[in-house]
Every structure is written in C-alpha cells, then in structure tokens.
Design goal:
2 copies of one chain form a homodimer.
Chain A lengths: L2 H8 L5 E2 L2 H6 L14 E3 L4 H14 L3 E4 L16 E4 L6 E5 L4 E4 L5 H8 L4 E2 L10 H7 L6 H4 L2 H4 E7 L5 E5 L12 H4 L8 E8 L1 E2 L3 E8 L3 H13 L6 E5 L1 H11 L8 E8 L1 H17 L4 E5 L2 H12 L1 H7 L5 E4 L9 H14 L4 E6 L4 E8 L4 H20 L18 H5 L2 H12 L15
Parallel strand pairs in A: 2-4, 3-4
Antiparallel strand pairs in A: 1-2, 5-6, 6-10, 7-11, 8-9, 8-10, 12-14, 12-15, 13-14, 13-17, 16-18, 17-18
Chain lengths: 455, 455
C-alpha cells in the first residue's frame, strides 16, 4: 500500500488525491522557484484530520507541507522533499464573530476577502491586505502585511490566538481572547511567520477594526523616484496617521495602463489613503497636501467616491500581474527588503542605480511608510545567466539593507529564496532558532528545507 | 573564597556588594511576597560584565536574578533560591536616538521617565506607562503596559529589538531597526514577558511616537461601578481612538483625596484622555460626551491645561500608594485579570460581589479599554487567615476570567503569585514553554522558581 492508500483509509477517499493536475497545482506558488510535485495532496476538514495526517507522517518521516491558495512569492509551499501537500482550503469556516471584542475566530482556509464580506454587516473589517486574496492560514504562516500595515500592523500584530497541531500530533492553543496578557511565554508570535516549519494552524483568532466613517484616496505624481521616496518619509515623520502610502515607479504605471486600459501619467507616483472621522480625514489630507507640494509633488488628485477609490487601489494591486503580463513565459522574482525609514530614500536610490547598472528588467513598488519596497523582476527560468544576475542583484539589495539595520524580507517570508541570508541577518540567534525547530520537529517533517531548516 | 570574592575578581570590587541593607533592598519588590536575601548583589556596567557573571554562575549552578527598580508587583525579583541579584541600574545609558525612525536604543537600567525627559526635545515620547518609574529592562521582562496600552499597545508591541545574554553566556541579537520583518522566527516577543527566565537583556530598542499636538483629559462620574464599566465598553466599541480610559472605584477616590488633599467626588469614576490634532481631539471628546451621558454619567469635566491634566493623572497613578498608605504595615496584593471587552462589565460585577461576600478590604481600578482591571487588597503578611482568604478571592477572579476567554495576568506578570494558574490557562502549551526553558537554561540558573520554572 502506498501513502495515498494509507491516507484514504485514515480519512476518506475524497480527501486524498494523486491526480496529476492536482499534484501540479500543489507543486508551486506564484514565484520563479522550480516546481516539485508532492506525492499526494490531502484535504483535511478538521483539527482531528490534521492530527491524523501528522501522526501518520511523523511515524514514517514523511514531509507535510501546508498549502493555502498558492499566492506566496518565495516558494514556501513547494514540497522540495515531496511527501504530503496538506491543502487547508476545505477548512474554511468562520467559527465565531465577536463584534464587541473586535475579534473573529476562523479556520485557516478562509480567505481575507471572504472574511471581509462577512464582517461588513458588523461595521468591522480585517485590516491586513497583501493584495492577493490569500488564505488567512498562509498569511499567518508568512507574517504577511501589505498596504495597510503602516496603520494597522502586520499579521504578527493582528493574530491574537492560535490552535496549532505540532509535529508530534499534539494540539496546543496559544494566546486568548484578552487584548493583552503577561501570562506564560508569548508563543503566538513565534508561530506567526514560521512558514509551516513549527506546526500547522487549524484555528486563528484575529483582531478586527471598525470600518472608518470616511476614507479618501489620492495619487501624487513626482518627477523622479527620489522625490517620491522623500515625500513618503516626510508624510510619516510629520505624524499624519496615514492608512496607506505606496510608491509605484513609472514602469509599473506603464504596465498597469497597458493591462487595465487606464491613463495614469507614467511617472513615479505615491498612492495614498486617509481614513477616520470626516473631520480628521479632511484635516489629514489638507496637511498631506502641504507636505507633498513642499516635497516637489507635480500633481495631486484625491478621490472620496468608493468606486473611484477601488479603481485606484485595483490599479495599485494589479501592478505585479500587469508587469508579469508584459513578460509572458517568465516567473516573478520580487525582492522584499525593509529598512529603517530614515534609510529608505538611500535604499531606493541604490536599487534604482543597480537596476540601471546591472540591466535588470525590474520596477520598484513599495509599502514605503514601513520602509519596505519590492523590485519586481521578470525571470525566464530557462535563462540561467539571467537568473544568476538577478540573484546577484537581490543579494546586493539585501546586504545593503542589513548594513543599515534592516531585514532581507519585510513581508514575503524566507521560503526557499532567502534562506541564504539568514545567517548574515540573524548571527548567533540562528542557533536558538534551530534549537526551537529541533525541539518542536526533531524528525524535520514539517515543511522541510524552508526558512532555516536544513532537513 | 566565596561567590562575592570570585565576582570581585571577575569585575571590580565596587561592583559587588554583600552589605546587609543592599541585600535587603534586593530581597523584595512592592508586593506582599515574602522577601528572601540574595547571597550577593552585582552591578554590571556592560554586556561583557553580564556575560562574565552568567558564565561564572552557569558553571557553578548559582541562580542569577535580574533586578531593576524593584517596582514589580508579583515577586519576580525575589531571589527565592538566593544566589546573585544582578542589579541592572548602572547600565543606564541611552545609546542611540533615531528620531526619523521613531526608535531609541537603551540599556536596561534607563527608567521610562528619564527616557521621556530626553525624548521631549525631539517631539517624541515612549508610550508605555505602568505608573511607576520602572526600568525599561523590568518593563520588558514583565511585558508591562498600563494606562496608554489601549492606544499604543504593550511592551510586546513596542520592543523592536533586543540584545540578550543567554544562560550559556552567549550574546544574541533579535529583531532589527526595520518596522516589520518576515525573516527567521520572531524571537523578540518570546523574550518580552519572560521575566528573566530565558535570558538577560542588555540592550533594548523601543518604538517611539510623536507627541500629539493636543491632549484633553477628563473625569466622568457615575452612580455605580456597573454604569462606569458599561460606559467604558461603549466608548471603545464606538471606535473613538481614546488614549486612556481608566476606571477608579469610590474607595480609591477616597484614599486619593485623603493622601493628596484633593476633593474629587467619592464615586466610581472614569479617567479619560484624548489626543491627536486639535480638530480630532475636539471631535472625539464631543462624541465621548454624548456616549457617556447616554450611559448614565452624572458629571463630566474636561481639562486641556497641562498642569490640570498632570494633576488628574497624578491622582490616578497615586491611587495604589494612597490605598496602601491607609493600611500601614500591610503589603499589597493586586489582582490582574484581563478579559475580552464584552465580558468586562460581568467580570467587574462579579469582583464587586465577591469583595462584599468575602469581606475583602479591596478596591477596583482598571485599564478598562483593554478589559484589564485590578483589585488592590491590603494584606498583613503576618495574618495567615486573611492571606488565605485573599488568595481564594484572587483564584475566583482568575477562574472566572479563564472561563470567559481571558488571562490571569494582563500586565503584572506571573512571578511567584500566578504560577499556580499557568496549567489552567495554557493547557498543553505549557509543555512547549517548559521545553523552550529547558533548551535555553538547562541548569535553571536564570530566575529559578518564576513563571513556569520548577527549578
């Protein structure tokens, strides 16, 4: 009997697949990393199902790789050692909405858009917005963030409690419904961002926010990317409680115009959002206007109508897809450094210079309020020379970020592509990370080969 | 040669003391827990000094208990197994202020008031305010919070990076200056709140905020504590971005009036603060006024003048001292449950009922915006019967909080007094906590007998 038959006997036959196209779907994410087929795809429906699968895999030393919607950008879900791809998307129940506590408890297969559809009637929303309609399990596993983190924080700031199946098959609960606690060790943030290497989440309790009374979005155009970066830093240091501030370089605007038939000026642009009470939004956007024109903004347009705002953010969010559309047959490599805000203009200027010098087919986009920016680069996986050059480029960005006190990944995670930077970034604390991994997963069955795992 | 002589040879003679009154100072904190004298008090001046002491202690299995200003409320610094009390207060340098990054890097012996004095010239402040002028090392060790956590978060939310000396004597750095990261495992929040049991902090990087343009404080009086609690919950659920909302029960107001010669009405009161731009503060306090009168507020007074505001918060902060002043010779036991906001009115009503039924000489004060409240109880340590009754009372509050999804300690920490609740609160995740402790401190030399350590 093979693994698939064993698992069919443990769960049910419709929860287990070895269909070729299903295996292929689970061999990759949206990145340039080389796909690897799992041996089998399993669809758990409950914590107990996950326990069964993990216990089975643990005894036999079979890798278990959790899978959400596959929208990751660093190969986290690629089953490099084959084994079981654990597709969490049938665990998609919203278990409990606690409007007065600003909390919701979900299964990991709920996607953020579906959650927000359900929350709207309560006047609440879940804030983390990485662009893709990712699963909340995947977002927890990578400590995702995105455009709204500058105001509402990352997943680490918004995951209140977890139910986790450990490699031993044991189920633990971390955190509580309380807004704060000094009891025991803080285990929840250790699991957030652990990329499936320490345990498998089966329930996630998330913090919610009230939908603001008023929201205004804006676009500010600049002559060059330096002025654009400086203006973003000036907005933040002035203390304006901005909801989003996104830098989009000219090549991205060109790609969006071609892809979405829009007519934005093809220059470096800041996409902005202010929200709060009507009075505060008015005051904030007035103050922003003054700062932006001091910083050389050439044109500034505000949109308060919901449709126009959605169109504007749709343009921002589609920029990566639009860019990829211009390069058919190519995969996407997205750099992801995050630097202290004071170092952002320098880091962006450095990236721009390297793009030119190294002839990188890339464009810059960034969550600049957090000091986080991406260079999206189209990669032909068959072109080894190009791939090597692009990886050298990424390495230069990463070592620049580390020199100025930053990190190799602000939000995409380590996965396969940033393992090589972990020693340089974390120094001797890497031994402590390895020790925690060894203690929790001595058999290296949980997403082997990712983050710092050598398994 | 004894421990003290060894340590004098390792460091310098003026960094080591066995003076009786120095040992007594380091035998206790502000709580009712029984003092225990350390064998020796050591004053490190650098990370290297800490490494020397820890290496020495590790080889010989001597306990090392970090000590700050001794303002803790749960006996964390009591050296229950004697050994070395490591007084961190000579490591009191502010190492680096990065105004554009809203960050500061400090040694652990810097106190929060001194830090804020230095930050004022930059228009910045460090937000966490537990009342006492605690050391930042101690605040990190207990995951302290206090009155402003409802707006700015707890220590866990505001510690960006740490330098930690592990039990092995190894020095690790966690986190970075970047506002967010998905690189490696999140070790920083694991150390925050670890109460000196996992490592000793020698550098702490903290997040800062800009001093708001305008601040208004207020006092809202109610006929009974139920209305007071309901009003606090109503303010939060209305989404008003309040900076502080503190419930102070009538007995505390009486104690403050006697202690500070003030003349506040001796009824359950909410102490409030709003801050932001002038416009937003005005809008917020107007909206709060409407909600408070709907909720039965009898009298509401706002103060925007800085002196009057300071006086008001001074009254709030001195309430515990004022209360203790009324009970000479007694220690203070402060309960510290934190419950989901929707459960707060029920939890406070329950506490009030138990105070009456069990004849507890206690009064309620709370950071009610977070669902966290304290019953301060005067305890005569010589009266074993009274102590037993008060501990039974605390136990009832804790088990009520756990039943409704809360925690036994919102901000004071576990220390000695709440170890007995750790199994009930954390269930099977306690094994993971013990495993992390074993891995990092196999000899149980770091603050033995605290949190979950059995050493």
């Amino acid at each position: 009997m093979g693994i698939a038959d064993d698992l069919r006997a443990l769960l049910s036959s419709e929860q287990v697949s070895t269909n070729r196209s299903v295996l292929e779907q689970h061999s990759r994410d949206e990145s340039y990393h080389t796909p690897v087929l799992p041996d089998v795809v399993v669809y758990p429906r409950s914590t107990e199902d996950v326990v069964q699968v993990v216990r089975y895999a643990s005894v036999r030393g079979i890798p278990v790789v959790p899978f959400g919607v596959g929208s990751g950008l660093e190969g986290h879900v690629v089953p490099v050692k084959r084994g079981i791809s654990l597709d969490m998307m049938q665990m998609q129940r919203i278990l409990e909405i606690r409007p007065k506590d600003f909390l919701v408890r979900v299964q990991p297969g709920v996607t953020r858009k579906r959650l927000n559809d359900q929350l709207r009637r309560y006047g609440l929303f879940f804030s983390v917005d990485p662009g893709a309609d990712a699963s909340l399990g995947g977002m927890t596993a990578t400590n995702a963030s995105g455009t709204t983190a500058v105001r509402y924080g990352t997943m680490k700031d918004n995951v209140r409690a977890l139910t986790v199946v450990l490699a031993s098959g044991e189920v633990i609960r971390t955190g509580s419904f309380a807004a704060k606690s000094s009891s025991g060790y803080n285990l929840t943030p250790l699991f957030v961002g652990s990329e499936g290497t320490l345990g498998i989440f089966t329930e996630i309790t998330l913090r919610l926010f009230g939908i603001p009374e008023a929201t205004v979005a804006g676009r500010a155009e600049f002559a060059d990317i330096q002025h654009c970066g400086n203006a973003a830093v000036a907005l933040i240091t002035a203390g304006i409680p901005i909801t989003r501030v996104e830098l989009v370089d000219a090549p991205f605007i060109e790609a969006v115009n071609a892809f979405k038939q829009t007519h934005y000026a093809e220059v470096p642009t800041l996409f902005l959002e202010f929200s709060g009470s009507r009075e505060s939004v008015e005051a904030d956007s007035r103050m922003a206007q003054e700062i932006l024109s001091d910083e050389g903004c050439r044109d500034l347009q505000f949109e308060s109508d919901e449709h126009a705002r959605n169109q504007l953010w749709e343009a921002r969010h589609s920029s990566a897809y639009a860019f990829q559309h211009q390069h058919p047959g190519c995969g996407l490599l997205s750099t992801d450094v995050c630097v202290p805000l004071s170092e952002l203009p320098g880091a962006i200027t450095n990236a721009k210079r390297l793009i030119d010098e190294m002839k990188i087919p890339g464009a810059i986009v960034g969550h600049v309020g957090d000091g986080n920016f991406h260079v999206s680069v189209a990669v032909d996986p068959a072109d080894a020379d190009a791939l090597r050059r692009i990886e050298q480029f990424n390495e230069q960005l990463v070592f620049h970020a580390l020199r100025v006190g930053g990190t190799c990944t602000g939000e995409h995670g380590v996965g396969l592509g940033k393992r090589k930077y972990q020693e340089a970034e974390h120094g001797s604390s890497i031994q402590m990370m390895r020790g925690i991994k060894e203690f929790l997963d001595p058999g290296h069955i949980l997403n082997p080969g990712k983050l710092i795992d050598e398994g």
